[in-house]
Batch of 2 targets.
Target 1
Amino acid sequence: MRREYNATVAGFAGKSAASSAIVSNLSSSELYSSALMLVCFMPMECEPNIMPLMMHWLTIGRRLLLPAFDRERKCYALAEVQGFDERYLTKGKYGILEPREEIPRQQPPFSFSAPAIWLVPGLAFTRTGQRLGRGGGFYDRLLEGASGMKIGVCFDCQLAESLPVTRQDMTMDYILTESCITQCSSN
């Protein structure tokens, strides 16, 4: 399944326009306007480009947290950033930009006092909130301690009727695509 969805996204020619629509759908939603903290992912080339959303978030003075690999614990933690230049980000474990090691990290579980939304990447999602990740379980372990709304972010072509899940797989509260934001039917 992972190969199939990787190939689907690789062949999707409308990534740029779809990414813009995804950003627009979320930024015009009540979920976005009511949150004070945003936990995001740094998009890889095959994922929706949510960078404009994160830039806007910082511009309006709200808190932005990104995953950062903790080499000692061999898992992801969160670190707050105020920008996207070399003062804040460096290439991480998988070649993805992540917060620099000197930025303090928070380990799960997270209990944020401010309303938070989590934007979660995945290879595929169902409308019931199931998620197919890249296979390492890193994001599921990070999400175990999540407080706030979990929003799966993908292109419409990554929506699946069903996915194989285990009890460790975290379920999303919403799915965000270029066509809509959908509250997951199981939640």
Target 2
Amino acid sequence: MQKPSIPKGTRDFLPDETAKRNYIFDTISAVFRLYGFRQIETPAMENLTTLLGKYGDEGDKLLFKILNSGDFISDIPTAELLEKNSVKLTNKISEKGLRYDLTVPFARFVVQNRDKIIFPFKRFQIQPVWRADRPQKGRYREFYQCDADMIGSDSLINEFELLQIIDEVFNRLKIKVLIKLNNRKILSGIAEFIGEPQRIVDITVAIDKFDKAGLENVKKELEEKNIAAEAISKLQPVLQLKGTNADKLSALKNILSNSETGLKGIAEIETVLNYINTVPVKAEIELDLTLARGLNYYTGTIIEVKAPDAEMGSIAGGGRYDNLTGVFGMEGISGVGISFGADRIYDVLNQLSLFPENSANRTRILFVSFGSSELNCCLPLVQKLRSAGISAEIYPEHAKLKKQLSYADANRINLVAIVGENELKNGSVSLKNMITGEQREIKINSLVEAVINS
């Protein structure tokens, strides 16, 4: 018999783990709603024409593609099969793919539902995405994203509010975070400054690895992509600018003085930072000129969030995209959004032991079962507790008390209600505290109050 398994990079979640994940989802969605965002959902799969070409070459390679239904091979000429050209074959046997993120499907959603939504439109979405990445610590092939986007507004107030949302979410989760900022226009200005304006994608893909790979590896990758040695030499001191955010911006103004695009990016960053000076956030904000996030659709502000106290990559990120809907035939609609990586946040909370004790939402009280008479007494009591908002359950079998108490202990149910012959006669319930071992008898009409105060 084949041993059951799940695909690499995916996970099962037990009840306690699922409850903890819901704690994360509930926290994030509550903050989204606080700022006026409304929830939507989109299908797990999209047409490949929707997804391909939106994430750059590296992103396209990580798309999970879905085989067409039925006998998808029969119409392929034998000669083409023997060619073993995977790209050419994929185009003929696969028309759909699992979504890579929630942003591109959202752009498709906006265009398709333009007559049903009001701009500016603030949406949030909490759903799984899939990437054919190499599984490793903190990196999964199936994971949840929690996205908030504002589309149909150019105002930098939106960037500021997204930073406030990030700050509020992680304050509520009690995770200390560092929020890194950059601007795609600044990166374009840097590409102009080093004399390689047409190579912006190659440059950003390489420098985005600066944090993990280091300067020498970034230089090596740029050399492999045939970026001129003089350009790499001019780039190095820019990437290594030190000091406060104001110091870096001051230096950049001199470096990019001849780049209209670069200066516009600097002005945008300054505006956002000025809003933060007006209404401060608790998190540290750092201008990081190596931050690129590698996704081609960003056009302005870029955001990345890290937890300095945990061994983990970014746990949230996002940015401004000025014309993502344009590829679907709706020009000139600007948007900005952020995405929280729920699975990484889960791992950080675990690493730092930050989940609250009540996050598992366990059953509060278990009624033991002795026989039909006792059962008939217990069933209305269980319902009464549930009506009062107290999670309660009854053991389904007439088993020995030891077995039932073991069930409560294994499931970390702290209170056990016992109704036996004596309790039936007295119109009472014996409440046993599984933590202290204390047991006391109370009247039935005092049960709800006793459980609340236990």
